[in-house]
Amino acid sequence: MAKKLVVGNWKLNGSLAANGALLGACGALAGVDMAVCVPFPYLADTALRLNGMALGAQSVSEFQSGAYTGEVSAEMLADLGCQFVIVGHSERRALFGEDDAIVGSKAAAALRAGLTPIICVGESLGEREAGQAMEVVGRQLAAVLKAVGAQGLKQSVVAYEPVWAIGTGRAASTDEAQEVHAGIRRWIAEQGIPSDKVRLLYGGSVKPDNAQPLFAMPDIDGGLIGGASLSAQDFMAICRAAADADKSH
Ligand code: PEP
Fold first, then answer.
1. Residue 57 exposure: Cα atoms within 13 Å on the Cβ side
2. 8 contacts: CB under 8 Å, gap ≥ 6
3. Each residue of 26-51: b (16+ CB within 10 Å) or e?
4. Among 6, 11, 37, which is best to mutate for testing ligand 1, by the most ligand atoms less than 8 A from CB?
5. For residue 149, which phi and psi values (nearest 5 degrees)?
6. What number of other Cβ atoms are within 10 A of residue 151's Cβ?
7. Atom 1 in ligand 1: which residue has the minimum CA distance?
8. Taking the CA atoms of the chain, what radius of gyration do you get in angstroms?
9. Which residue, by CA, sits nearest to atom 4 of ligand 1?
10. Cα-flanking dihedrals φ and ψ of residue 244, to 5°?
């Protein structure tokens, strides 16, 4: 498996001044791959301040070009230096009507432009309590597989983000996260894809104090970090935990 990958998702936050201060205190560390996914208007400026980290966006249009006012294509993201794009974040699914089919189309658009989609999957609290976590995640992944094929999924990153853990301060326990990650790994292998080639990130209230044990789990290959990625100190501490976890394996 490649190095662990830690990705910051700034969501709808930032300004040129605030981003400059945040990025000025962040930068690549040995032993871990790092990326920041920033709002569209800040991509170009962030590209100049990465200090060795990779650049990503938080969403992408399923369309390539034409009469789609307000959309941003994967090709445009690649043009601006993006390597990653988040697709299917639970906030996009819940608030902006992105269903499984749209998420599949967006992942396909990203791959077409040479980007690595970070495909977010995860169950709601009700689904978890009904024992349906893996069933939901399998359904979400199957829609992406249908759109991108085995080759496309192999080139993607999957982020397991239980909806009940995002922005709530209640991260999944190491066992809860590991169980679903192992299930995802198995599911990918069942599709005939070398599952150790697909990085599986955990996301949901990762903070400096819980990052290390999560990253030490055998099927957790890094993290997708929301709130804590807005603090340089916290983000860098989480990235250091990932680098350390990798060394101890
Ligand atoms: C996210 O938005 O992808 C996320 C994991 O958020 P947080 O870390 O704030 O829970």
1. 25
2. 34, 35, 36, 37, 225, 229, 230, 235
3. beebeebbbbbbbbeebbeebeebbe
4. 11
5. 75, 170
6. 9
7. 226
8. 17
9. 226
10. -65, -40
What's the rounded Cα separation, in Å, for the pair 69 and 154?
Answer: 32
**Stated length of the chain:** 249
Of 117, 115, 98, 97, nearest to 107 by C-alpha is 117
Phi and psi dihedrals of 141, rounded to 5? -70, -35
- What tokens appear for 19 in the block? 């981003």
CA distance 150 to 141: 11
Nearest alpha carbon to residue 90 among 58, 114, 117, 115: 58
* pLDDT for the residue numbered 249: 60
Domain ranges of the chain: 4-248
Distance, CA of 160 to CA of 158 (rounded, Å): 6
In this prediction, residue 246 carries a pLDDT of 79
**Whether pLDDT at 248 is above 70:** no
CB contact at 8 A, 57 and 38: yes
Stated as kind and residue range, the H or E segment containing 139 is helix 133-154
Question: Is the pLDDT assigned to residue 24 strictly greater than 70?
Answer: yes
Q: How far is CA 126 from CA 105, 122, 162, 216, in A?
A: 27, 12, 11, 28
* 4-248 topology per CATH: TIM Barrel (3.20.20)
| Ligand 1 centroid – CA 34 distance (Å) | 16
| Mean pLDDT value of segment 177-201 | 96
- Residue 54's SS3 state is strand
- Quick check: CB of 204 below 6 Å from ligand 1? yes
